[in-house]
Amino acid sequence: MQDSEVAYLEFTQDQADALFVASQSLARLGGPEVFGAAGKARQCAEALTRSLDAQQQATLRRFADGTLSALMYRGMSCPEHDPIPEDLPELQGLEHDPRCIYLASRNQILLELVRYRAFAFDIDNEGKQVRLVGNFKGGGSQPRPQETRDTRVELSSHAGLRLGPHTEAPYNCSVIARDDHSPAPSALILTARWNPANEPTHVIPMREVIEGLGSLHALALTSASFDFTRSDCFVAGSGEPEQATAMLQFDANGGFALRYNSYRFSLNDQASDLAAQAFDAFQQRVAETRPRPFVLQPDTALVINNNRALHGRDILQDNRRLLVRLFGYSPFAQPRVITPDPLLVRG
Ligand SMILES: [Fe+2]
After folding, report:
1. Among 51, 164, 169, 187, which one has the highest count of C-beta atoms within 10 angstroms of its own C-beta?
2. Tens-place pLDDT, residues 161-220
3. Which InterPro entries match (predicted)?
4. 43 inside domain
5. Is pLDDT at 233 greater than 90 in this prediction?
6. How many angstroms separate the alpha carbon of residue 166 from the centre of ligand 1?
7. Å from CA of 273 to ligand 1 middle
8. Residue 101 domain flag
9. Structural domain includes residue 222
10. HSE on the CB side for 237, CA within 13 Å?
11. Could you report the per-residue pLDDT of 4-25, keeping only the tens digit for each?
């Protein structure tokens, strides 16, 4: 039976070869951080699309139309052997490593296959398009070299802590910019360079959860009754906490858009009893929903619809796990653009 929320796109060998060549040529230009990469990625995606069969194209359309929580690409090729190191190398070196730039370039093309454009926020990840997700700051189940118990570990994708179910920040709005804040990412795409312990990324599709709440509870989640705290990885003075915001809104593409973070959202002091009950019911249903595990490796990539699904992961077991992440905006998203190429928006 076809899963209504998750789909897989398996590349043929010829398609994988073409994607490999395109990703390498994009990487040689410098990858997603350089001027002109977005246009080149779009051209590569258009060429690749012409080689897809009708069923593959239909799968891409389901994601592009906003009706899938997650799409996993499978059967991709990688450059020659890439042995797993003894320890995770330093972040700075990895950011300039050709292998990481290759994987990031491939992610950018894969985003363009569903007509999403890669972008970065000014307040997050130092304005860079590519985020390397790994335990650079401690907090995993095994300590990093020099990590002590007193080390204060930030709750972000640069640490090894468990990340409970969440959508990606910012949480001010979902599709159209509001009060000079750009919307949350429409999607994120992840692939792995190393994942020696096969540690999964968890996805929780939210359509069923919201429908199961009932109409009055769902309606209450659209009221401005919820507060959130700022993300640890935002630059100081930016992305400040906000009070009395909504979690849920109607959206024509897919039916709804959700903003939520299990470790950052709380009930506003002024919230009504109905909103409080709805928030409790929502959190309970999320806790009761079994997440879908996706184990990423270099031959796979996962696009997650950030309006329609929560994602998270458990505490890291193997500190060498390294994922490569990009954010994407759908054609419907209207951000506050700072520079168009590479696309940088106000957070
Ligand atoms: Fe995340």
Report:
1. 187
2. 999 999 999 999 999 999 889 999 999 999 999 999 999 999 999 999 999 999 999 999
3. TauD-like_sf
4. yes
5. no
6. 6
7. 30
8. yes
9. yes
10. 0
11. 999 999 999 999 999 999 999 9
* Residue 47 CA, ligand 1 centroid: distance in Å: 31
The tens digit of pLDDT for each residue in 278-293 reads: 999 999 999 999 999 9
Q: How many angstroms separate the alpha carbon of residue 53 from the centre of ligand 1? A: 32
Number of structural domains in the chain: 1
Residue 239 has pLDDT above 60, yes or no: no
Q: Of 297, 303, 301, which is closest to residue 106 (Cα–Cα)?
A: 301
Comparing C-alpha atoms, which of 235, 241, 240, 249 is closest to residue 308? 249
Q: Helices 13-29 and 98-113 sit at what angle, rounded to 10 degrees?
A: 120
Q: Cα(342) to centroid of ligand 1, in Å?
A: 22
Boundaries of domain holding 143: 6-345
> Does some domain include residue 1?
no
Q: How far is the CA of 262 from the centre of ligand 1 (A)?
A: 11
How far, in Å, from the CA of 170 to the mean position of ligand 1? 11
| CATH code where residue 39 lies | 3.60.130.10
Crossing angle, helix 37-50 and helix 98-113, to 10 degrees? 60
Say how many Å lie between the CA of residue 290 and the centre of ligand 1. 18
User: What distance in angstroms lies between residue 144's CA and the mean position of ligand 1's atoms?
Assistant: 21
Query: How close is the Cα of 13 to the center of ligand 1, in Å?
Result: 31
